[in-house]
Specification:
Number of helices of chain A: 10
Strand content of chain A: under 5%
Order of helices and strands of chain A: HHHHHHHHHH
Shape of chain A: elongated
Oligomer: homodimer
Radius of gyration of chain A: 19 Å
DNA sequence: GTCTATAACAGGATAGAC
DNA sequence: GTCTATCCTGTTATAGAC
């Protein structure tokens, strides 16, 4: 708040949120304990319940929302670099594959890990996951419209793209192989090109 | 063993394995307790450790392998019905979407749920996941070669297909929407058709 | 707003009677 | 091979001093 204050370390609440996102990405929601979270964030357990009265569940919700906001910024960052959209998509998947391997196959999206775990058991967190994923679909779809796709095609493509990305992350992490991400990238590049070509052929 | 014995109920070990697969699919590995598993399987906790000396981890490994064997049988079952491969792929995704909605969005692959959770924390289970997924890729790839794809194309397609399927399951479950599965099915049908067309054009 | 101590309970695993 | 009782450790959450 004070413009004079140095950037310092992030606030305690921020450190807790970031630590939770990191732990969830690595081991999921259920396996992450509050004590471990406190240790990782460098805060006593009491601070967690002070900043997040809803406890572990509240921290998880905040971590998912923060992750969601951070990830959506990557879309233009990765795809604007290529004038040809299909080429950009394929390159983005390749970048993801490299990043994953260089981080020891740990860099998976925490929202996806948690979403799989809690969809049937934690209604509030499932709603948060749906909200975050829905935001990705909306924003990603808008971006694709800007790249020349019709609204309907953009919606189809962003659904297929996000599904392929999350699924390929999951397979790559278990197999410790770039192959799923590379194959998914090729597949989506072909699909994107087909949609663009069809739209160009009948601009009704 | 005794050919005269009625089919009866499955053996205790089988009931435990099946119950574990069902619980893991719904809530993951970490959130599934041994007491809950015993209750679901209709067996005392002692029996679990009698049949699976490695405990919860051993039951999970058995459940993943059993699931893997069951799922791979679905491939010819779903795809042989259509003479045109891309059409068959799209129909299979649509069937998965219907099944999922009619079961209250709970029917996700337990291997995928667990794989996401334990990739960094349970090395033995990660290896089992890799073994099961690797089997799907091998068998699915062989099937696709039988449907007219080159070995390299089959490998690419089965990777892209499995990634899209697991990812779409994950999104569909969180969003409670068929849309990810339908979009992924369309995307893979287009990709499969492109691979088949390219192979037909240059049968070098 | 920070931190310690602890309450209240559930976790996985084991021992041993039957 | 089945089942019960129990051990020990870890869990989430809270109370209350500072």
């Amino acid at each position: 708040m004070d413009p004079m204050s140095a950037p310092e370390v992030a606030t305690t609440a921020d450190r807790i949120t970031v630590a939770m996102a990191e732990l969830m990405r690595r081991q999921g929601y259920a396996a992450t304990g509050v004590a471990e979270l406190a240790r990782t964030a460098g805060a006593p357990t009491g601070s967690i319940y002070h900043h997040f009265p809803e406890g572990k569940r509240g921290v998880a919700a905040a971590a998912m929302r923060t992750t969601g906001a951070a990830y959506i910024q990557l879309v233009p960052l990765l795809l604007d670099a290529h004038a040809d959209l299909p080429t950009g998509i394929e390159a983005a998947f390749a970048t993801a594959a490299d990043t994953m391997e260089s981080t020891g196959w740990a860099t998976m999206c925490p929202v996806a890990v948690v979403a799989a775990e809690i969809a049937d058991t934690e209604p509030e967190l499932r709603a948060v996951a749906a909200e975050v994923i829905g935001g990705w679909l909306d924003d990603g779809g808008s971006y694709l419209v800007g790249r020349g796709l019709t609204a309907a095609d953009a919606r189809t493509l962003i659904h297929a793209l996000l599904a392929a990305l999350e699924g390929a992350f999951l397979l790559a992490r278990s197999l410790r192989s770039q192959e799923p991400l590379i194959a998914a990238g090729r597949s989506l590049a072909v699909f994107a090109r087909a949609l663009l070509d069809a739209a160009a052929r009948q601009p009704a």
